[in-house]
Amino acid sequence: QVQLVESGGGLVQAGGSLRLSCAASGRTISLAAMGWFRQAPGKERESVAGIGWSGSNIYYTDSVKGRFTISRDYAKNTVFLQMNSLKPEDTAVYFCAARRVGITQYDYWGQGTQVTVSL
Questions:
Q1: I want to staple 97 with a disulfide (CB 3.0 to 4.6 A). Which of 27, 65, 77, 106 is the partner?
Q2: Strand, coil or helix: 50
Q3: pLDDT confidence of residue 29
Q4: What pLDDT digit, counting tens, does each position of 72-112 carry?
């Protein structure tokens, strides 16, 4: 089993920045990748960014490219999402997720953290 704990959400004005953290614990040796997803009210959950457990294979959804950066702290088994130039449309609950080696779907999820961007 793997446990994921997110932190770092909050309220920020448009143009501001936030950094989300996701600390993984448990059987992290089984992990192949971690990612960030978000879900806004009335919308489906969408993938925001992802990173291979080795730090490779980074991807971003088009709407956040150039503004968000995903990274890893190997020593702390923590993944970060640095969010700059935030827009009101970035408002959502952000979820950290992890995918095990050999599994195509993300099968571990954090509890979610609210990000609200005001005008």
A1: 106
A2: strand
A3: 87
A4: 998 899 999 999 999 999 999 999 999 999 998 999 999 99
Token output for 65 = 């490219």
Going by their DSSP bridges, the two strands 46-52 and 108-109 should be labelled as unpaired
The number of angstroms, rounded, from the C-alpha of 26 to the middle of its chain's C-alpha atoms is 19
Q: Which of 110, 107, 113 is nearest to 93 (CA)?
A: 113
Q: Specify the residue for token string 């959950």.
A: 45
Residues paired with 69 in a beta bridge = 82
**Per-residue confidence at 67, pLDDT binned at 50, 70, 90?**
very high
The Cα 108–Cα 102 span in angstroms is: 14
Give bridge partners of residue 24 from the DSSP assignment. 4
What three-state secondary structure class fits 20?
strand
The pLDDT tens digits of the residues spanning 12-50 come to 999 999 999 999 999 988 889 999 999 999 999 999 999
